[in-house]
Each structure stands twice: as structure tokens, then as C-alpha cells.
């Protein structure tokens, strides 16, 4: 069985780019009948906050992603220690004592002399005496994984065959001097332990994959299939960041952007599939194919997203929105929803139309030349029960009586009945307004 996972670090709020990673994994899991795991990569104790972990769960729920299991790396230290010991016994780990400043200086010197800023494995040449001297000064080692020599390759689900020369990379630090383990290592231990078969993540992880494939090999674990999707950028081409909130999922939710539109937008832009509204995640899953993703970054256009959101709302079925309408105090069942949905930019505007139809309206000034028409309209209002044909019966008679037709007939009626110059089809809205309110509104406007 396929096992996919979404593995955010709860060090900030998820953004649209994270939604791309999430939805690709969740929908591919769904499509293949596989499992979907949420793993919180919370090893960076200095930056992790519980509030971010909770926001991740809220975002998943909002997007309609249900996971089969959730893990937190902070609860799995025993597993990492065991894997660490195995690598150490196999001679693949070595202690190093450089401070951040020393490492930074090394990188700058390398760059200045035209060499790649790769760690020079200086710590491998430390003598026992030198180590003892460093420890006597109070220095604690961090631990590096000695990468294999040569090149490593994989068949990437998006990018095709990849090959990276391991000599171009620094031996990764797997444990800090305080004993904490680092993501590049813990992720491999977890993916192996949880039987992850597919890792779909952003292009920014391509070099990590080379390192991690070497770690899988050193641990004797079969690696998952890797696929690296193109990244999303802001309109001016900057990368999205968890720290800068504009395209965070929480802020999109607050702006009333529809979750299904976010899911569709996040997965369809930057692919050969046209950005389009979908009726549900099932339909979206049918459009997802890693082979269709482009290799270059995709720019997010907030206006395109809003437009998609409105179109998505227009297509939402009543059963998909009923609980939300109820929470907004919108009644009228499927008939009301179908009457107004095509006029909404955001779903919560349905409450405005419900209020317009069923609550007292403010004053609506009628143009003087319409007073006679509205008086006649009030006098000829059919008796109830009303249905969608009432409007036609009423306005046809009114047209014959007054000689008005088209805009000249409908615009004043609309304004008097709803207080708005535009809106849902009146034939469908009228039964919700009902005779008593209609009569009162027409009288008030004359
Ligand atoms: N915690 C990593 C991140 O948020 C996970 C990357 C991965 O999918 O392995 O970038």
C-alpha cells in the first residue's frame, strides 16, 4: 500500500506553497487508495510553537484533508537515538567541534577562493589529544554523517532522472551539541519506520534528497520514491515564507477565500492542467498528475485566486455547504442556496441575501417616475401561495397594465423589493420575500 506524508515544521503558519505540498500528497494518497500521514517535524525547539502545530491541524481540517495518523518528531527521540547508534557503530558518524562562527568563516573563505562552500571534513583529522583538549575547554561535539563517495541518483517523479555528486555536499550534521537530532536525519528514520513509500515535496529539498538517499542506504532501509514539485512565488517572484503572512492559509480563510479554491489553485497552477473550479476533492484528485507539473516556479496571482474562489462558490452543491449556511443563520434550504450562489463572491454573503429576503429593509428611495408603477405593482400583487412562476404572472400583468417592460419594469421592482440594483433572479428570490414583506416594501417605495 502507498504511504504518503505531509511533514511541516510547526515554526510558522502554513502558506499556499505548503498547501501545494499537502494537497499533492493527500490527493495522490486518496487516488491510490493509500495512507496519509501528518508528521510534525518539531525538532527545532527554539522555533517550534504549539500555536503553529494547532494551526496546521486547523488548516488541514479547513482544506478537507483527513489524515490516517499523526506523529510528532519530539516524541520519537528513542528511535533516532537507536538509529544514531547504528550509524556510529558502522563508522558513519564523526564528532566535530566547530562553532557556528568557525563554520561560517570556512564557508566564506571557500567562496572567496572560488571553491564550493563544502565542509572540509577537518574534524576527521582530529587527534585524540586535540579532542580531549577541546572537551576540556567545555566544547561539546555535534555529529556529522560521512557521506559516501561518488554520485547518487534517483528517478524523480517530477524532474525525471537526477544525479548529484555527493562530493559537492557537506557531510550533514545529524545531531547538535545539545544532543538534539536534526531534520535531515530524523526524517529518514521516520520515513523508514513509518513505511513511507512516496515523498512529494518542494524543489528546495532536492539536495536533501541526495543526502537522505545516502542515509537510507547506510541504515539499510529501502528509500521512498521522491518527487520534487516546482515552488510557488509571490507576484513579484519572491519565495513564500512561513514568517510573512500574506498568503498564509489562515489569512486566506479570513478573507473568505473558499478552501476548495485554495486546494485547486495550489495544485493546478504551474501545471499543464488549466486552473479551474472543481466540485470537490474527488474531482481535483482526478486532475492531479505529477507528470503535468512544470519545472519552473509558478507565480501566485491573488486576483486569479479570488476569481477562482467565486466560481467555486457558484458551483458548490447544497449538501456540501448546508452546515456552513446553518451556522450563518441562512435558511431556505437547497432552493435558497441555488437562488443566491451565483451572485456570491464569498459564501458568507449568502447571509446578506437571506437578510435582504427575510429581514426588514432599510429605506429604499424610489425614483419619482416609478411611484405609479410601484403602486400598481402593490395593488396587483398575486395572492399566496407563491412559487417561481409568481414573478412571471405578476410582471406580465403589470406590463400590460402600465406599458412598462424590460429594465424600465424590472429595475424599479428590484430596487423596491431588495434595496439593491443587482442580485439573484427575482423569480426565485420572490417566494422567500413573501407577500407581506413584498407589499410593505412596495408601499414604502411609493
Ligand atoms: N519539515 C520539512 C519541511 O517543512 C519536511 C520536508 C520533507 O517533506 O521531508 O520542509
UniProtKB/TrEMBL annotation:
Short motif 'KMSKS' region, span: 239-243
Motif 'HIGH' region in this chain: 8-18
Compartments reported by the entry: Cytoplasm
Domain Glutamyl/glutaminyl-tRNA synthetase class Ib catalytic: 4-305
One GO term (biological process): glutamyl-tRNA aminoacylation
Swiss-Prot/TrEMBL catalytic activity: tRNA(Glu) + L-glutamate + ATP = L-glutamyl-tRNA(Glu) + AMP + diphosphate
Keyword vocabulary terms for this entry: Aminoacyl-tRNA synthetase, ATP-binding, Cytoplasm, Ligase, Nucleotide-binding, Protein biosynthesis
Ranges where the Aminoacyl-tRNA synthetase class I anticodon-binding domain occurs: 369-444
GO molecular function: ATP binding; glutamate-tRNA ligase activity; tRNA binding
Subunit record text: Monomer.
Record-stated family: Belongs to the class-I aminoacyl-tRNA synthetase family. Glutamate--tRNA ligase type 1 subfamily.
Protein name (Swiss-Prot/TrEMBL): Glutamate--tRNA ligase
Gene that specifies this protein: gltX_1
Amino acid at each position: 500500500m502507498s504511504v504518503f506524508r505531509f511533514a511541516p515544521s510547526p515554526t510558522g503558519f502554513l502558506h499556499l506553497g505548503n498547501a501545494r505540498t499537502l494537497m499533492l500528497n493527500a490527493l495522490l494518497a486518496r487516488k491510490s487508495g493509500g495512507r496519509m500521514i501528518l508528521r510534525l517535524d518539531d525538532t527545532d525547539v527554539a522555533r517550534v510553537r504549539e500555536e503553529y502545530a494547532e494551526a496546521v491541524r486547523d488548516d488541514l481540517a479547513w482544506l478537507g484533508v483527513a489524515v490516517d495518523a499523526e506523529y510528532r518528531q519530539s516524541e520519537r527521540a528513542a528511535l533516532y537515538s537507536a538509529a544514531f547508534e547504528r550509524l556510529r557503530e558502522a563508522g558513519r558518524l564523526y564528532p566535530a567541534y566547530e562553532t557556528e562562527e568557525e563554520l561560517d568563516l570556512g564557508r566564506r573563505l571557500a567562496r572567496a577562493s572560488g571553491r564550493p562552500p563544502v565542509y572540509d571534513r577537518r574534524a576527521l583529522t582530529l587527534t585524540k589529544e586535540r579532542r580531549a583538549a577541546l572537551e576540556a575547554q567545555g566544547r561539546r561535539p555535534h555529529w556529522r554523517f560521512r557521506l559516501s563517495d561518488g554520485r547518487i541518483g534517483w528517478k524523480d517523479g517530477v524532474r525525471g532522472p537526477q544525479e548529484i555528486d555527493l562530493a559537492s555536499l557537506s557531510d550533514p550534521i545529524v545531531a547538535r551539541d545539545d544532543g538534539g537530532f536534526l531534520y535531515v536525519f530524523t526524517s529518514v528514520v521516520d520515513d523508514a519506520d513509518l513505511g513511507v513509500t512516496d515523498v512529494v515535496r518542494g524543489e528546495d529539498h532536492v539536495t536533501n534528497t541526495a543526502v537522505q538517499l545516502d542515509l537510507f542506504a547506510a541504515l539499510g532501509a529501502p528509500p521512498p520514491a521522491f518527487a520534487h514539485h516546482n515552488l510557488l512565488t509571490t507576484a513579484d517572484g519572491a519565495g513564500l515564507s512561513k514568517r510573512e503572512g500574506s498568503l498564509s492559509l489562515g489569512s486566506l480563510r479570513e478573507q473568505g477565500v473558499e478552501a476548495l479554491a485554495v486546494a485547486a489553485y495550489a495544485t493546478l497552477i504551474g501545471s499543464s492542467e488549466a486552473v479551474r473550479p472543481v466540485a470537490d476533492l474527488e474531482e481535483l484528485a482526478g486532475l492531479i498528475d505529477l507528470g503535468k507539473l512544470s519545472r519552473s516556479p509558478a507565480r501566485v496571482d491573488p486576483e486569479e485566486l479570488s476569481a477562482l474562489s467565486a466560481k467555486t462558490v457558484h458551483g458548490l452543491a447544497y449538501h456540501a455547504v448546508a452546515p456552513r449556511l446553518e451556522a450563518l443563520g441562512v435558511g431556505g434550504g437547497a432552493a435558497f442556496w441555488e437562488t443566491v450562489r451565483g451572485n456570491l463572491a464569498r459564501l458568507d454573503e449568502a447571509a446578506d441575501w437571506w437578510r435582504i429576503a427575510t429581514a426588514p429593509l432599510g429605506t429604499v428611495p424610489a425614483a419619482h417616475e416609478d411611484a405609479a408603477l410601484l403602486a400598481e405593482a402593490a395593488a396587483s400583487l398575486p395572492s399566496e401561495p407563491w412559487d417561481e412562476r409568481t414573478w412571471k404572472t405578476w410582471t406580465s400583468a403589470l406590463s400590460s397594465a402600465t406599458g412598462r417592460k424590460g429594465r424600465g419594469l424590472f429595475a424599479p421592482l428590484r430596487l423596491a423589493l431588495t434595496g439593491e440594483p443587482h442580485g439573484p433572479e427575482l423569480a426565485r428570490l420572490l417566494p422567500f420575500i413573501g407577500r407581506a414583506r413584498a407589499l410593505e416594501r412596495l408601499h414604502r417605495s411609493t
